[in-house]
């Protein structure tokens, strides 16, 4: 459907090694957002960055395991995202969480019941 409405972008910065109840924190966040019916969310692995303690994290071609930065972004209305902040804060104890106002110009989804994604 084509539309123009105000929404917010929730951005969460965590480390790849951050965990919540034994699973990667970024995966726990994505699964929570999906369960709550948020429009969509994506986790992206960074190649270089630093956090609160200013320790640099970088991808190196010969390393198999890293603690790279992970950014999770989700977009929906503030009314749907804001109530999730207490749960998200529990999951993301060492990360950064931000809200930004955005304008949604187009939001197309799959037909109801047609889940083209896969569970990981």
Task: Write up this protein.
- The structure is a single chain.
- The chain is an alpha+beta fold.
- It has one domain: Alpha-Beta Plaits (2-Layer Sandwich).
- It is 18% helix and 41% strand.
- It has three helices and eight strands, in the order βββαββββααβ.
- It has helices spanning 25-35, 78-81, 85-91, and strands spanning 2-15, 19-20, 23-24, 40-45, 48-50, 56-58, 69-76, 96-106.
- It has a four-stranded antiparallel sheet. The protein has a two-stranded antiparallel sheet with strand order 2-3.
- It is globular, with a radius of gyration of 16 Å.
Task: Note the topology.
Blueprint: E1 2-15, E2 19-20, E3 23-24, H1 25-35, E4 40-45, E5 48-50, E6 56-58, E7 69-76, H2 78-81, H3 85-91, E8 96-106
Antiparallel strand pairs: 1-7, 1-8, 2-3, 4-7, 5-6
Short description:
With about 120 residues, this protein is of the alpha+beta class. The chain is about 20% helix and about 40% strand. The two termini are about 30 Å apart.
């Amino acid at each position: 459907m084509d539309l123009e409405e105000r929404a917010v972008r929730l951005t969460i910065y965590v480390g790849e090694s951050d965990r919540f109840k034994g699973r990667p924190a970024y995966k726990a966040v994505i699964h929570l957002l999906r369960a709550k019916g948020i429009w969509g969310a994506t986790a992206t692995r960074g190649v270089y960055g630093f956090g609160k303690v200013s320790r640099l994290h970088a991808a190196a071609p010969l390393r198999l395991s890293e603690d790279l930065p992970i950014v999770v972004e989700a977009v929906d209305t503030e009314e749907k995202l804001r109530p999730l902040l207490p749960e998200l804060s529990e999951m993301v104890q060492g990360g950064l969480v931000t809200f930004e106002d955005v304008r949604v110009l187009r939001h197309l989804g799959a037909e109801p019941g047609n889940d083209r994604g896969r569970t990981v």
